Q: What sequence folds into this?
């Protein structure tokens, strides 16, 4: 009882919320301070690790090129996320509606989930041309399909027996059952899948840039900065990538929160 | 006193029956290592139009199963179930009954209003008429102030009342209720019982009512059907037609005839005569 109380309060009581937010911030500042101190006092070379101060300086001075990189990589990740999500959701709908489709796709999904998808990037660059973003979008989309598909399918199968009975007792048609019970039941699961997939989309789109394609993205910028031994700049781009991934995660998390606010009664 | 086809409030010489269950068996096949369960064996039951019948019996004796067969949510292994002279399936497709489940079974993503109006929405009533009807129903179950709340913001008893309102939405001629008052406190419970008697009298609906409470069964019913478990059988049918619905008010709860009937039902439930009426179980 007593230990459950603070957890339940964490969302409500502003003072507890403050503390929950403050703790990681304090830790972060502390770590950065120690890092800075260590780099300065031990005179660590920038190719081992640059100081946070140096990284931050480069981040500010190169902000426009970092924003460009974030835009390119972010767009690829977003398009991949949308395309992959649509394929995953439609596939899950088909699989839950027809068991034969489910049986057919099960091994395919299992195979897709073990393929290191970014490893396909070089192949896709030769297929779609190294001058286009297509290969990167495809890599992001492919990495999104499986988690979205699996979560959606799971959600579609969570319909409670009493709800099925309820709809049957009212002689509801199949589309009515889908609209009033099956889809609302699955919705929170879909968004859980999207939250997991959103980080994957960013990571995949970024890593895919390491294997070729046009310049401009964060991944490309990180490699070229590192290649020209500008390590603080490389780290500044990494910081940009972290912020991009965080943005994707937070947005999808908030959407998921919204859709799970009323779940589970009686 | 006439018992088997006691007329309901509609009376009017109608001879149709609301529910006819004939020699019904329901065997749940064994799954894996478990043995098969004979949930219902040779069950015959007739519920007249407008009649209030309670099913009472120990846990697992097949009350919910019988209700599900009537609702065509499950099919008998053998025997027939007819509702208003039609096969149960036809009656279900014709929206002939309203049902309240043992678990409230509300849709958590819908507000109280949206939950209550679900049957009306599914069957194409227009929005304006729906809102009016929902207003009436929420008034009836005392939840007008909670119209915009969501099920996870309600207590268990409040959720059950929403489910009851939902089952009444289309003014069905047959109400199937599976322990609808199970999670209610004694005061709300008695109020809901009085309301149910009134609704039954007003709409002339037949009611099949599952309960674990003997006084509740006796207070509400024209007949109390006593069941026994494994295999689920009807042990006896105790008439409780101690007066028309109009007479079943709170004073009836203190009536000598009421206690007499309670004692009779207890006897049948326990299989042995029980002397005295003290300690009547209430849940
Ligand atoms: N879907 C099912 N599959 C297998 N067995 C079932 C199923 N439904 C019910 N049974 C069995 O049938 C018997 C009667 O169940 P039922 O739910 O009708 O009991 P009940 O009288 O409603 O009990 P309670 O008062 O606890 O609600 C039980 O022994 C149960 O195990
Ligand atoms: Mg039951």
A:
């Amino acid at each position: 009882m007593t230990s459950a109380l603070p957890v339940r309060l964490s969302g409500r009581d502003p003072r507890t919320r403050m503390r929950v937010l403050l703790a990681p911030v304090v830790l972060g500042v502390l770590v950065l301070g120690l890092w800075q101190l260590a780099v300065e006092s031990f005179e660590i070379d920038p190719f081992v690790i640059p100081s946070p101060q140096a990284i931050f300086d480069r981040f500010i001075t190169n902000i426009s090129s970092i924003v460009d990189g974030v835009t390119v990589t972010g767009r690829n990740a977003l398009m991949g996320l949308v395309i992959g999500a649509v394929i995953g959701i439609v596939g899950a709908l088909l699989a839950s509606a027809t068991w034969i489709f489910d049986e057919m796709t099960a091994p395919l999904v299992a195979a897709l989930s073990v393929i290191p998808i970014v490893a396909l990037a070089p192949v896709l660059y030769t297929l779609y041309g190294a001058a286009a973003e297509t290969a990167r979008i495809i890599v992001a989309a492919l990495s999104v399909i499986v988690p979205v598909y699996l979560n959606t399918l799971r959600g579609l199968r969570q319909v409670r027996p009493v709800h099925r009975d309820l709809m049957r007792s009212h002689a509801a048609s199949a589309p009515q059952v889908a609209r009033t019970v099956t889809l609302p039941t699955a919705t929170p699961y879909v968004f859980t899948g999207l939250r997991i997939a959103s980080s994957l989309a960013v990571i995949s789109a970024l890593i895919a840039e390491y294997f070729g394609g046009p310049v401009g993205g964060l991944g490309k910028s990180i490699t070229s900065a590192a290649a020209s031994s500008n390590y603080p700049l490389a780290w500044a781009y990494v910081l940009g990538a972290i912020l991009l991934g965080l943005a994707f995660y937070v947005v999808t998390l908030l959407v998921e929160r919204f859709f799970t606010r009323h779940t589970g009664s009686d | 006193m006439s018992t088997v086809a006691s007329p309901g409030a509609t009376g009017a010489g109608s001879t149709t029956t609301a529910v006819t269950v004939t020699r019904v068996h329901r065997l749940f096949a064994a799954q894996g290592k478990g043995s098969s369960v004979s949930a219902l064996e040779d069950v015959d039951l007739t519920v007249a139009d407008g009649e209030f019948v309670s099913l009472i019996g120990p846990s697992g004796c097949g009350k919910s199963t019988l209700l599900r067969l009537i609702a065509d949510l499950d099919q008998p292994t053998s025997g027939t179930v007819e509702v208003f002279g039609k096969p149960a399936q036809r009656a279900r497709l014709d929206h002939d009954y309203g049902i309240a489940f043992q678990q409230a079974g509300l849709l958590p993503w819908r507000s109280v209003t949206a939950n209550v109006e679900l049957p009306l929405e599914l069957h194409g009533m227009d929005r304006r008429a729906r809102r009016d009807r929902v207003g009436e129903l929420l008034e009836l179950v005392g939840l007008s102030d909670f119209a915009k709340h969501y099920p996870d913001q309600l207590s268990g008893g409040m959720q059950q009342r929403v489910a009851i309102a939902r089952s009444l939405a289309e003014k069905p001629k047959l109400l199937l209720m599976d322990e609808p008052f199970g999670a209610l406190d004694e005061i709300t419970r008695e109020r809901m019982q009085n309301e149910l008697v009134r609704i039954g009298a007003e709409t002339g609906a037949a009611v099949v009512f599952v309960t674990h409470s003997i006084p509740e069964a006796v207070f509400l019913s024209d007949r109390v059907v006593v069941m026994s478990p494994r295999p689920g059988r009807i042990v006896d049918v105790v008439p409780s037609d101690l007066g028309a619905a109009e007479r079943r008010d709170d004073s009836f709860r203190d009536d000598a005839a009421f206690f007499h009937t309670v004692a009779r039902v207890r006897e049948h439930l326990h299989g042995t005569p029980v002397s005295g009426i003290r300690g009547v179980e209430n849940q």
Summary: Chain A has a mean pLDDT of 85. The CA atoms of residues 69 and 216 of chain A lie 6 Å apart. The two ends of chain A are 21 Å apart (CA to CA).
